[in-house]
Specification:
This protein has about 700 residues and is α+β, with helices and mostly antiparallel strands. It is built from 25 helices and 9 strands. Among the domains are: about 30-110 and about 110-150, Endopeptidase. Chain P, domain 1 (Glutathione S-transferase Yfyf (Class Pi), Chain A, domain 2, Up-down Bundle); about 185-215 and about 225-260, no CATH class; about 370-580 and about 620-690, Neurolysin, domain 3, CATH 1.10.1370.40.
Length: about 700
């Protein structure tokens, strides 16, 4: 990428294409050399900072410190992405090892007393002279000094050494947990092809399965399926999700459910317990009652007690509607198939789909022809471009890490923007499954932007159906919403990537604000004109009919309360595993208690989803973020004119006041700036009960 402004030099400049670990990457040795370059550059910047004598200034102290953070961030983020996506197992192995090395280097910087004292001296100097620094710089220093104190920099040498050892251990355990999940793709053999009845035609064709004439005649004919070869399914999302929603065979659904929720077990059970014990010891060394208190003290939430209070409030808000939703569903199943009662977790998505077909005259399979992957991708790029005032220009010459990965330059097209017509970032789309790749859906930073010095780069790592020859890669409506959700993260990364300080670039707000921009965008897909602009039948080109779209939106509203309680259950599990003594934890009993409390469905014995619950590594105790941010996201969306979502001036105001500041302001200031007030639960309550209003 070229720099935006000509005067400063790019941050990285000494090795071939230093911005990208994957450029020309043929093996682990090159990956290690690339990482070592950035680690050496970070060490050099720290040495420069420590060599200063006398009164400190921004130029001789914060500038080299921020440069060190930039290099460490580069090394960490790109190694992490290669661990998730690189086609070569050798490179993924190296990336896993390198992530531990980079983590140790980052911990060493966070425990460096001399650096802390230098930053503290600078902070004192700037505080004494109010004109010496802007508000964003002072906020950066405040947050940095807080993170140092939370890392234990002020502890005695023996304690700091133990903290260092624990941090290294937690990094290694976290990487091991994630790698085990990533590599454990379960296989489900299907001996009787008729177990696949109910699945979409393109799914069947992809597995070599065809309908054959059934016995009987007329409307009484019994459908049958035949396969040319044995059929084996996997737990990859594009294979698993249709089975859970459409397969008429409860036996197949249960086998898929148990296989999916048994991934990484038993290996990850002990890994998780060891990780929780290490976190507990770390929190104790730092003077906190539990890891949950440590992990929330510098977040918007503030404490584990406030988190628990928030989750209780959401539970109360959703409980009554959830009971009503489940009662309707249960009555429907009792009428259709009494033998399917009591409803189990492995049958939930199938019967919810059947209920929506009956209640709302909506079959989610019926809209898939309007959402072929390539068409959806183009539509989302167009929609995001109009909404955020940008254009996406394909960059076919950009070096990528695997075939099929696409790169786009992001060009500012917002009227009145200081960078109008300029390239302001680059995005990469890695959107389909492959062997060894992470099975989740996520946005990943690649290069932190720095105003005048470096453009931001980021990627999406997803697992949507892949078009292949005659297979257009048809998506569910929920897939489309997920795609735009992740795209919201991508735009936050790019539009927030023009900060003076790398440590405030892109998605560097408090951790429990990062899901707001992505969840807010989900609401845009209830607008028919917006969706009809790209939702066209892949064979006829006709846009999705208005009446079908209306039924789809109505059907999608049913079950929101039940889904909200499921999110409360996940958030509570994350909290409880980090708020209780690790030695007393029974992961299975805690999981069962959570489902019994929050879910109306019968628990399926053998469900060990915690072994593949990778959010326990990334979000640790703070899975509540999704619900907490949904509250703010819905409040933000309420500011838009539903009659003019895209062209409304609110969209540009949202870009300016929420996305562009990146992490240069406290998240609460961003909320107040856009809403003119604090957020409340009112929009969430209305959203939960909309189908019954």
């Amino acid at each position: 990428m070229q720099v935006v402004d000509p005067q400063p030099q790019p941050i990285a400049s000494t090795i071939a294409d230093p911005l990208h670990i994957w450029s020309g990457l043929a093996g682990a040795g090159q990956a290690r050399a690339w990482v070592e370059h950035h680690l050496a550059a970070a060490r050099s910047a720290v040495a420069e900072l420590l060599a200063v004598s006398g009164q400190r200034t921004l130029e001789d102290t914060l500038v080299p410190y921020d440069r060190a953070r930039w290099h460490l961030g580069m090394a960490g983020s790109q190694s992490g992405v290669m661990f998730m996506v690189h086609p070569l197992a050798e490179v993924r192995d190296a990336a896993q090892q390198l992530s531990q090395v980079i983590g140790a280097e980052s911990v060493a910087l966070s425990l460096n007393r001399e650096v802390y004292q230098a930053l503290e001296a600078l902070h004192a100097s700037l505080t004494a002279d109010a004109s010496a620094a802007d508000a964003a710089t002072l906020y950066y220093l405040d947050r940095t000094l807080l993170s140092y104190r939370l890392s234990g920099v002020d502890k005695d040498e023996a304690t700091r050494e133990r903290i260092r050892a624990l941090a290294d251990r937690m990094t290694a355990l976290g990487m091991s947990f994630s790698r085990t999940v990533q590599d454990d793709v379960r296989k489900i053999p299907v001996e009787d092809p008729d177990e696949l009845l109910g699945l979409p035609e393109d799914y069947l064709a992809r597995h070599g399965v065809q309908p054959v004439a059934g016995s009987g005649s007329g409307s009484g004919a019994v459908p049958h399926l035949a396969a040319a070869a044995p059929v084996t399914l996997t737990t990859d999302p594009p294979e698993m999700a249709p089975v859970m929603s459409y397969a008429a065979s409860p036996q197949l659904r249960r086998r898929m459910y148990l296989a999916y929720n048994d991934r990484a077990f038993p290996a990850n059970r002990q890994v998780l317990l060891d990780l929780l014990a290490a976190r507990e010891e770390m929190a104790t060394l730092l003077g906190f009652r539990s890891w949950a208190d440590l992990a929330t003290v510098d977040q918007m939430m503030g404490s584990a007690a406030k988190m628990r209070e928030f989750l209780n409030e959401v539970e109360v808000a959703a409980r009554e509607t959830a009971q009503r939703e489940f009662a309707e569903l249960e009555a429907f199943v009792r009428e259709r198939d009494p033998g399917a009662l009591p409803l189990t977790l492995s049958d939930a998505r199938f019967w919810e789909e059947q209920f929506r077909r009956s209640r709302f005259d909506f079959d989610s399979q019926s809209v898939r022809p309007y959402f072929p992957y390539d068409q959806v991708e183009a539509g989302i790029l167009s929609t995001a471009g109009r909404l955020f005032g940008v254009e996406f220009a394909a960059a076919p010459d950009a070096v990528v890490w695997a075939p099929g990965v696409k790169a786009f330059d992001v060009i500012d097209d917002a009227a009145g923007s200081a960078t109008h017509g300029q390239t302001i970032g680059r995005i990469y789309l890695d959107m389909h499954p492959r062997e060894g790749k992470s099975k989740w859906f996520s946005e990943c930073s690649l290069v932190s932007g720095v105003l005048g010095r470096q453009l931001p780069e980021a990627s999406l790592v997803c697992n949507f159906p892949q078009p292949d020859g005659s297979d257009p890669g048809l998506m569910l409506y929920s897939d489309v919403v997920t795609c735009f959700h992740e795209f919201g993260h991508l735009m936050h990364e790019v539009l927030g990537g023009r900060q003076r300080w790398a440590g405030q670039s892109g998605i560097s707000t408090e951790g429990d604000f990062v899901e707001v921009p992505s969840q807010m965008l989900e609401e845009f897909f209830e607008d028919p004109e917006l969706v009809r602009a790209f939702a066209r039948h892949y064979q006829t080109g006709e846009p999705i009919p208005y009446d079908v779209f209306a039924r789809m939106v109505r059907a999608s509203a049913h079950g929101r309360a039940l889904a909200t309680l499921t999110q409360v259950m996940y958030a509570t599990y994350s909290l409880e595993t980090h708020d209780r003594p690790a030695a007393t934890l029974d992961l299975d009993a805690l999981l069962r208690a959570g489902y019994d409390r929050f879910s109306r469905y019968e628990f399926v014995e053998g469900n060990r989803m915690y072994a593949a619950f990778t959010h326990l590594v990334g979000y640790t105790s703070n899975y509540y973020t999704y619900l907490f941010d949904k509250v703010m996201a819905l409040e933000f969306f309420s500011e838009f004119d539903v009659r003019n979502l895209i062209e409304s001036p609110t969209a540009l105001r949202y870009r300016r006041e929420v996305l562009e500041p990146g992490g240069s302001k406290p998240a609460r200031e961003l909320v107040r700036a856009f809403l003119g007030r604090e957020a409340s639960l009112s929009a969430l309550k209305s959203w939960i009960s909309r189908e019954f209003e």
